[in-house]
Amino acid sequence: MLVIVVENAPPRLRGRLAIWLLEVRAGIYVGKVSRRVREMIWGTIVAGIGEGNAVMAWSTNTESGFDFLTLGANRRIPVEMDGIKLVSFLPEAEEQDASIA
pTM for the whole thing? Predict the structure, then answer.
């Protein structure tokens, strides 16, 4: 199973993703593809995301049962702890500005 979520993606990229995957909600794509096709789709996302952001998650043989990649600016960033990929949150920009002053 493959899941891709894009935010602020250009319409051209969203159309390309809809060729290979089913868009179940705006910007959310699901499907079952091979590793080779998944890597090709990610390359298409990298080339076409522009100012947007994306996350791609897929089933794999890991402790958690899945893996994921992210691209673009987002408060959520992947971190690896003891071989398991987790998600950390960056502080909000307003909180950063207040701590500087």
Answer: 0.82
